[in-house]
User: What shape does this take?
Amino acid sequence: MSHYETLGVDKTATQDEIKKAYRKLSKQYHPDMSGGDDARFKEIAAAYDILGDPQKRQQYDIKGSSHDFFNRGWGDNINMSEMFDQFFGGQFRQQQTQRGPDYRIDMHVSFEEAYNGTKKIFSIDGKDISITFKPGLKTGQTFRLKGKGASHPYNSNLPKGDAIVKIHVINDGRFILQGNDIWVEQTLTWWDIMLGTKVGVWTPDGLINVTVPQGTKPGATLRIKEKGFPIYNTDNRGDLLCRVNPVYPKLKESQIERLKQIRDDG
Assistant: This one.
């Protein structure tokens, strides 16, 4: 079998194509991998030693795969592990020997659970795992549970990997989260907005009274300090932002006349 056949490339392959082929096959047949093959790995490394070097490749193309060239002694001088580690920066072997693989878990929580904090119990390898989250969970947050991952596939004496939990918060249509601020909308008659009033506004904590100051303009946003979303692992919160949307009820003729008088007096 020629070196080209060993790497699964054509004789016209570019150096980049040869490198990609070697990278793929050497990972596949590395002895530390499941299904690895030490003899096959050495053949792949030997083929790349020739074809990966433009000068050696040129000599090989001229002389072909003759017995003399194939047995010139280069194979005895190659350190396969060093060659693999040099090509991949040593990271592959280091990752294979440190600990077992990590488990990655996508966890969905309701807006209420994210706001108030929650406790979740789930199973890993048949064992129940409990994790308590503080108030203020947000989509994209990750939590690492040390030693709760998989065992090393080749060495059970090495530490297990970790379990990495990624949070996904389910939206609540009543509230819009912007940073740590919570946006809500409240509908009032336009005269209540302009004359000022008190109104009950629903928040994740329940109903609270909000004062609409006199002279507020329809469509304005009122800021209620520290009534927003909790900031994880702190005692702080964002703000509640309440937009007051006006409604324009149908007026009686007498009311319209009074409005006209107000307009004319102005």
Notes: The chain has ten helices and eleven strands. The chain has three domains: 3-98, 103-169, 176-265.
